[in-house]
Write a structure and sequence with these properties.
The longest helix is centred in the first third of the chain and has 39 residues, at about 40-75. This protein is an alpha+beta fold. Among the domains are: about 110-210, Pseudouridine synthase I, catalytic domain, N-terminal subdomain (Alpha-Beta Plaits), CATH 3.30.70.580; about 220-365 and about 385-420, Pseudouridine synthase I, catalytic domain, C-terminal subdomain (Alpha-Beta Plaits, 2-Layer Sandwich). It contains 12 helices and 11 strands. Strands 3, 4, 5, 6, 7, 8, 9, 10 and 11 form a 9-stranded mixed sheet that branches. Strand 4 and strand 5 (about 175-185) form a beta hairpin.
Length: about 450
């Protein structure tokens, strides 16, 4: 580098011009023989210039090295499964050199993509999704699997490492007759031993093998929910009735189903959830069916109940409970059915939210998956007909009975009905603070089933 700058500077000459004045007053421009820069000045200039360049290059090299080290450290700290890797993974051998010498490769645990079919009563839980410091279904399930060696410590701390995914994220107090969780599990699992570790209100029905890329949420075609409530909820608001003696007339049941039919199809449900705008694409949901079954009197009770069934591709936070709440308000005569069509429009409306007690995730549908892989001879269909008897037994004993007993003991629906006439069904002022107002939320929450 020094020699390069030396050659460059030496080759540069600085011509000088000397002006002479003749005695006649004229200026003559006479070129004088070029002279070279003093050697001492030239050498100092070249030396300082070369030193500056070398220092600049050294600084650049040091900065590049620091960036590489920082990037490497960040990758090591944040290294985790990114959801795209489908290659089968094995448990790592021990890090202890002595243990590695005696490590038997045959003892490594092969994990395959599977689903866990389970049911639970959510009355005593704060929802399905794991939430530190609260009692949730996932926390009890993961802890039981850890005790039975279905998962290791890393899988318990970070379920994403074993590709844990739920089909629907049920809210506080919401139960599930059928819930599906996709996860990587070892072979030869003891189902009875796992259920012995779980509380009575959580039951694992079966474990089934699925394809490597299966995801219980994204592969789900539709979900069916039920909402069980006392039929006194559909009585006219002006009637003075008793929950134990009221019986729903046939014509009133017909009116209930006429109102429920208004929700069927693809609609804009921005008014039936929270923190969603009219123009948000995720508020458009497809409802396949929505109807109320004939009423019944549960065994050992005198009050009459009815079950509403709804099937749709997916649902947003509180969507079903708001749909049921507005239906009850219309049937009781507190507002007319035109409010439902108006709520699908751009205007803001406050929709009453029915209690969460009666809501149950009833079925998870995988029709496309069954059509593609159900007959390949390697995978089972996800229709759960074989498990139907134990599903119904668990539902009657731990879900349906709990809903009826809790309703009759706490009167949650009756208390909600008493406050319902105070609700306003007029359009809301956009400046009025309300639950629809946007807040900071993670993008991943936008399409979750939060019912």
């Amino acid at each position: 580098m020094f020699s390069l700058f030396r050659r460059t500077v030496v080759s540069v000459e600085f011509p000088r011009v000397v002006y002479l004045t003749q005695q006649y007053g004229r200026k003559l421009c006479t070129p004088v023989r070029p002279q070279l820069i003093d050697d001492t000045v030239r050498e100092r200039f070249v030396t300082e210039l070369a030193a500056a360049v070398e220092a600049k290059l050294a600084n650049k090299k040091l900065e590049a090295q620091k960036r590489m080290e920082s990037r490497k450290t960040k990758q090591e700290v944040q290294q985790r499964y990114n959801g795209a890797v489908k290659r089968r993974k094995w448990e790592d051998p021990p890090e202890d050199p002595e243990a590695v010498k005696n490590f038997d490769p045959a003892s490594r645990v092969k994990r395959r993509k599977s689903i866990i079919l389970l049911g639970y009563s959510g009355v005593n839980y704060f929802g399905m999704q794991r939430n530190p410091g609260t009692k949730t279904i996932e926390e009890d399930l993961l802890r039981a699997m850890l005790k039975q060696n279905w998962i290791n410590d890393e899988g318990f701390r970070q379920p994403q490492q074993i590709q844990f995914q739920r089909a629907a994220r049920t809210d506080k107090g919401v139960s599930a007759a059928v819930q599906v969780v996709s996860i990587k599990l070892p072979d030869n699992l003891d189902l009875e031993a796992l259920n012995s570790e779980l509380p009575e209100d959580i039951r694992v029905y079966a474990v089934k093998r699925v394809t490597k890329g299966f995801n219980s949420k994204t592969n789900c075609d539709a979900r069916t929910y039920t909402y069980t409530l006392p039929t006194v909820s559909f009585a006219s608001n002006e009637e003075k009735v008793d929950i134990n003696t009221y019986r729903l007339p046939v014509d009133r049941l017909k009116h209930v189903n006429e109102v429920l039919a208004l929700y069927v199809g693809t609609k804009n449900f921005h008014n039936f959830t929270s923190r969603k705008e009219f123009l948000d694409p995720s508020v458009k949901r497809f409802i396949m069916s929505f109807e109320c079954d004939p009423p019944f009197v549960p065994e050992g009770a005198t009050a009459e109940f009815a079950t509403i069934k709804i099937k749709g591709q997916s649902f947003m936070l509180h969507q079903i409970r708001k749909m049921v709440g507005l239906t009850i308000a219309v049937v009781r005569g507190l507002t007319d059915s035109g409010i439902i069509e108006k709520a699908f429009g751009q205007e803001r409306y406050g929709i009453p939210t029915a209690p969460g007690l009666g809501l149950v995730l009833s079925r998870i549908h995988y029709d496309k998956y069954n059509k593609r892989y159900g007959e390949d001879g390697c995978h089972e269909t996800l229709e759960f007909e074989k498990e139907e008897p134990i599903i119904q037994e668990f539902f009657k004993r731990h879900i349906a009975s709990t809903i009826v007993e809790t309703e009759l003991s706490t009167n949650s629906m009756i208390e909600w009905l008493e406050k319902l006439p105070l609700h306003s069904y007029d359009p809301r002022d956009e400046n009025e603070p309300s639950e629809w107002k946007p807040r900071n939320r993670k993008a991943s929450d936008d399409n979750d089933d939060d019912e």
